[in-house]
Amino acid sequence: MLTLYQLRDRYDQYGITAAPQSNAHRLALLKAISLLEVRRESVAAALLKRQIYQIRRTGDWDAETYALIAKVPLATYEELRAFAESEEGRLTFRTIFSTLRELEVFVTFAAIDFETRSVDASTDRNFAKRLAPKEIHKFAEQYIGVNQGNLVEFSYRTLGEFYRDLDLEKDPEAFAGTKRERFIAILSDSSSREQAIILRGVLERFPVDSQPWRTSEKVAEIKTWVARLEETGGVPAPKPTLTTDTVAQALSDAETLIKAGGATRGVDRVHTALHAYLRHVAETAGLTLATDPGLTEILTVLREQHPAFQAKGPRAEDIRKVIRGMAAIVDALNPLRNKASAAHPNPDLLAPAEAMLVIHAVRTLLHYVDAKLSEFARSQELAASPKSTLDVA
Predict the structure, then answer these.
(1) Measuring CA to CA, which residue among 261, 265, 296, 262 is closest to residue 282?
(2) What residues have CB less than 8 Å from 220, skipping those under 6 apart?
(3) pLDDT, block means (10 residues), the chain with 393 residues
(4) Alpha helix locations (H) across 262-286?
(5) Sign of CA dihedral 344, 346, 352, 357
(6) pTM of the entire structure?
(7) Kind of pairing, strands 2-6 and 54-57?
(8) Torsion-angle region of residue 359: left (phi > 0), alpha (psi -120 to 50) or beta?
């Protein structure tokens, strides 16, 4: 195991306990990511968002100390080794350690090891959306079903045939343990694409109601996992230049919820981010808004009164039509957020595809507004700057 970084006052590495990472420490890592993103520590946040590190208790029982531990593919191992040796790498780990200590998780060193079967984050674009351990166990035990430690309706022979039928190079014989343990190990070790294929294969082999515990509710949940695993890149998450703590926190919360629970969980937070952002833009520009203005009203005021959004240049009228169309989209976001998101205890929530459509629409609008503001600011700076002697000549 290679030590990537350790605190100056800790030159000794105590043994790492075998106990798995706790839920409290998983939450601490999510909180650390949110703090790092708000503080514009993008490299440190990106490193933790790869979800390769776990917080593990060290063997120093005289003090409550922890380590950041990761087992990664060889290519990732070499990438992180070189990064940790750089000045940027040392500063990044120092920032991560400081943030975790702020959250009362006293990490003293970070270390990595490599294993040949691990999924490589650099080649799996949906790496961060892969199934969490609790989802994998829930799928195996509560949908397929377990009897005396073994998967029901699978023999060792048919388990191997299952992967061959899916055209996946997975050999259960390469893993030790029961059929359940081998299935969980293979699913845990698979890429996001392979996990989606395995989930679909199981749903086809064991359809809803084929056993009393295989309910339609469980099938619906599994399909949301498949949708998450198969998501394409889409519109990237925005990072507005003109922002507030509320906007930054809402955007960070949205990304965390989308990755942890799917697009449906993130609709409320992106709506909040858009509302707070547009209001801040209008107030910063000195535009008059009504008391507690709605999202549609704020966008209308910006479109009609803010100088950055006055369409000029080629096809100006067509651009105005596009902006009016965006206003219609914004008008539809309010009932979607209030009646079909997790903002309220609604019985019927948006399906993952529709939720992602809403999120991409909000992201597109945020990107557009931020780009127009930046463009307008640059034009104002140029207009205010004194002309050079060459310009005068």
Answers:
(1) 296
(2) none
(3) 74 55 82 89 83 76 76 74 86 92 89 68 68 87 88 92 90 81 86 91 94 93 88 66 80 71 76 89 90 86 86 77 80 80 74 80 86 83 60 42
(4) 263-284
(5) negative
(6) 0.44
(7) unpaired
(8) alpha
